[in-house]
Amino acid sequence: MTRLRTPYADAQAVRQPSGQMLIGEATVADTLQCVHCNAHWAVVRGSGRIRGFCRRCMGPVCGPQCAACVPFEQRLAMIETRGR
């Protein structure tokens, strides 16, 4: 039986994961969650993706598009007020 190569074969374990990716019943990778937009991603060694950390929210950030500190709850409040 051949073993399938997944894109998450090089995924790293993280100290405090926000979630886990499962394929079947096997855990494939730990995930982190952006504190500004709630996006999830797997931490893959050598991927070249730029991630960050918000010192104001004390959590991981998914990339340069979320570098400005607008917490998710505040972002939801702004969306709700736009609809009124």
Provide a brief overview of the structure.
The protein has one helix at 72-82; strands spanning 19-23, 26-33, 40-42, 52-54, 59-61. With 84 residues, the protein is α+β, with helices and mostly antiparallel strands.
Descriptive key words:
84 residues, alpha+beta, 3-stranded antiparallel beta sheet, two-stranded antiparallel ribbon
Please state the average pLDDT score.
Answer: 82
Report the strand count. Answer: 5
The assembly state of the depicted protein chains is single chain
Into how many domains do the coordinates divide?
Answer: 1
What radius of gyration results from the CA coordinates? 16 Å
Secondary structure tally, helices: 1
- The secondary-structure element order is EEEEEH
Strand content: 25-35%
Strand order of the largest sheet: 1-2-3
State the end-to-end CA separation: 59 Å
The structural class is alpha+beta
Please state the overall shape, judged from the principal axes of the Cα atoms. elongated
Please characterize this protein's 3D structure.
By secondary structure, the protein is an alpha+beta fold. The protein has one domain (19-82). 13% of the residues lie in helices and 26% in strands. Strand 1 (19-23) and strand 2 form a beta hairpin. The longest helix has 11 residues, at 72-82. The chain is elongated, with a radius of gyration of 16 Å. The model has no long low-confidence stretch (mean pLDDT 82).
Layout of secondary structure:
Elements: E1 19-23, E2 26-33, E3 40-42, E4 52-54, E5 59-61, H1 72-82
Antiparallel strand pairs: 1-2, 2-3, 4-5
